[in-house]
C-alpha cells in the first residue's frame, strides 16, 4: 500500500499538492507579489495586475481557500493580505532556489507535458 502521507507531518500528499497548486498560476503569483508589503483591496489588485475583476476574484478565492491569504471587510471594501509571515518567507525561498535552477526550469519541457493546462482558478482534484 502506498504511503500517502509526508513522513514528518502526517499531511497527505493530496493536501500538499493542493497547497502547492495555489502557487502554480501566473495570476496568483502576481497577486502574491503585489501583497508582499501590505494589504490591498480587490480594486487595487485588479488595477496592478490589469486583469478583470471576476477572474481576479476567483484567484483570490483560491488563495484564501488554501490559507495563503486572508481577507477582512472594512466598510464596502475587502482588504487582502498574506496569511502570515511564513508565506512571505516561502515566496522568498522559492526565489532563492529558483536563482540556482533557473536555466534548468526555463528549459524544462517535461513540466509543460506533465501538467495539464489550468483553466481559471481551479486547483484541486
What does this structure look like?
The protein has about 120 residues and is mostly helical. Helix content is about 55%, strand content about 10%. The C terminus is likely disordered.
Descriptive keywords:
mainly alpha; 54% helix; disordered C terminus; 125 residues
Structure described in brief:
The chain is mainly alpha-helical and 125 residues long. 54% of the residues lie in helices and 11% in strands.
Q: Please count the helical segments.
A: 6
Task: Enumerate the strands of the largest sheet in spatial order, edge to edge or round the barrel.
Answer: 1-3-2
What is the N-to-C order of secondary-structure elements (H for helix, E for strand)? HHEHHEEHH
Shape annotation = globular
Question: Which consecutive residue ranges, at least 5 long each, have pLDDT under 50?
Answer: 119-125
| Number of E-type strands | 3
Q: How far is the N terminus from the C terminus?
A: 21 Å
Largest sheet: 3 strands, antiparallel
Overall mean pLDDT stands at 87
Helix content: 40-55%
Protein structure class: mainly alpha
Strand content: 5-15%
Structural Rg: 16 Å
Question: Topology, please?
Answer:
Elements: H1 13-21, H2 26-34, E1 40-41, H3 42-49, H4 53-65, E2 69-74, E3 77-82, H5 85-107, H6 110-114
Antiparallel strand pairs: 1-3, 2-3
